[in-house]
Fold this protein.
Amino acid sequence: MTMLMNSVFDLPDVFRQLDSLRRGFENTLSCGSSAAAAFPPVNLYVNQDGAVITAEMPGVDPDGLDISAVADSMTITGQRQTAEEEEGQNWHRRERRCGRFSRTVQLPFRVEGDRVTARYRDGVLEVTAPRPESDKPRKVKVEA
Amino acid sequence: MSNDTQVATRREPSANTLEHTSAERTRERVVFQPPSDIYESENEYVLVADVPGASKDTLDIDLENNVLTIHASVRDHTPDGYTPAYREYTVGDFERSFRLSDEIDRDSIRARFDQGVLTLTLPKAQPTRKRIVVQAT
């Protein structure tokens, strides 16, 4: 009987442990169910003068973005605002990604890191990276 | 509050099962379901949806028969004079519908759009309590 009583009294503790376990899971998975895909998604466009990279990253503070180009690779690092957790908030859906992100894109050619420009508008980042003059393709005239 | 269509990620074109939106579009364009957060606090529901590339003027928020529909036209931001070399996303419009519960104060829904993120605040309706007096005969 005492054994039974004990296990009955232990029950709330088991629930507490289960609850903290659940919370632990929720914290690691708290930022969106589409977590499998790389964030932010990027597109790369090229022409003979250089490359343009666009990335969909809504809700990012542009001042906190770090964009750097070294030789033929471009790295974009930033942070997405984490949703405010408040007491008494009940989550129904959590699909949006949040937290820190970093993407490195391999470019088909070297770019001039000093001349890289970036623009952020309506949640879309556009980075323009020109090629060095000396690397640009040159037309060769065939002499008769 | 529940979602009418199946949960799809950003990359999957939206499967529209709603009758009133099943008409075909005149423009041939891919439509995506925006990833959304929904949370409930004591006084309101908050819906946050990612609609990158949309703007305030192209956003359409519609409430019809308890179905809240968000539609966002997205401008094509493909740079002029460049050839695509690598692609991780397609530019398309966004659309998604949610069925609201009755307890929403439908007249005080607020919408905010900032940097490609749409935030809708849906205040809960105050329960209307009416006291019925039983008259003695």
Observations:
- The first helix of chain A runs from residue 2 to 28.
- The mean pLDDT of chain A is 82.
- Chain A is about 20% helix and 35% strand.
- The beta strands of chain A are 42-47, 50-56, 66-70, 73-80, 90-94, 99-106, 117-121, 124-130.
